[in-house]
Structure formats: C-alpha cells, structure tokens
Design goal:
The chain is an alpha/beta fold. The protein has one domain: Glutaredoxin, CATH 3.40.30. Strands 3-5-4-6-7 form a 5-stranded mixed beta sheet. The longest helix has 10 residues. GO terms for molecular function: protein-disulfide reductase activity. Pfam families: Thioredoxin. One of its GO terms (cellular component) is cytoplasm. InterPro entries: Thioredoxin-like_sf, Thioredoxin_domain. This is Thioredoxin.
Length: 137
C-alpha cells in the first residue's frame, strides 16, 4: 500500500502485512502508522491524503471548542484501535481556514471520512471512541 509521510511528505510503499508493525518512512525514518492522531495543516494535508491507500478520518476542530477538546482522548483511543487500517488526522480550522472552507465546515467538531482522497461521509458533533469505530466501518 502507498503511504505519504506526514512529516516529510515522502511517498512510501508498505506491505499490507506490515501496516500494523510501525513501518518507518524510508526518507526521514519517522513512524508512518503509529496508532496516534496526526496533526496536519494546509501545507501537508493534500500530499498525505493523495498519497494514502488507507481510509482517512479527518477531525476538524478548534482549540476554543469545548466539545472538540473533549473528543481528543476519544480520537486517541480510536486511533490506537484502527492502527494499520486507517489514518486519523486533525485539522485546526483556525490555523487552516482554507481547508475548513474547502470542506464547508460549518460546525466544530466535524469528522469526515476520506477514501481515495474523496469524502465519503461526514458527521458533526462529539463522539465516543466506540461510536467513531462503528462509524469508520
């Protein structure tokens, strides 16, 4: 499968069997699928999304939003459970307003699911980790 490193934007090819085994970027050596939520921004979002064969869950959030902040531990738990099967990323809509506009984000938090770079579904409002996992199915 193809994965683009969120740190250096290098495209990597990872055998599917190795997806859950902490594969590293061939260029910078950082872990590609750590089971953690990855912070992205306008400068690296498109490269990471376009270069990934995995489904991507995007959390559009803002630091001033209580419900968005409350979702942080839930997203972390979901990311650990989806390790190697999906990539969870966060976009701060305050520091990446062009992405928020591009995806027509009207409320925070908003979760969008991307497959092949295209949005396939979205949901607004805070979710618990089991709800996130079920929604990703």
């Amino acid at each position: 499968m193809r994965l683009t490193c969120p740190h250096c934007q290098t495209r990597n090819v990872v055998p599917e069997a190795a997806a859950g085994l902490d594969p590293s970027c061939e260029h910078c050596g950082k872990t590609l699928l750590s089971g953690e939520v990855v912070e992205l921004c306008e400068t690296n979002f498109d490269a990471v999304v376009a270069g990934s064969d995995l489904p991507i869950l995007v959390d559009f959030w803002a630091p001033w939003s209580g419900p968005a902040r409350m979702m942080t531990p839930q997203l972390k738990q979901a990311a650990r459970q989806l390790k190697g099967r999906a990539l969870l990323v966060r976009i701060n809509s305050d520091t990446s307003p062009h992405l928020a506009r591009r995806y027509a984000i009207a409320s925070i938090p908003t979760l969008t699911q991307l497959r092949g770079g295209q949005e396939v579904q979205r949901i607004n409002g805070p979710l618990q980790a089991p709800e996130i996992l079920a929604w990703m199915q």
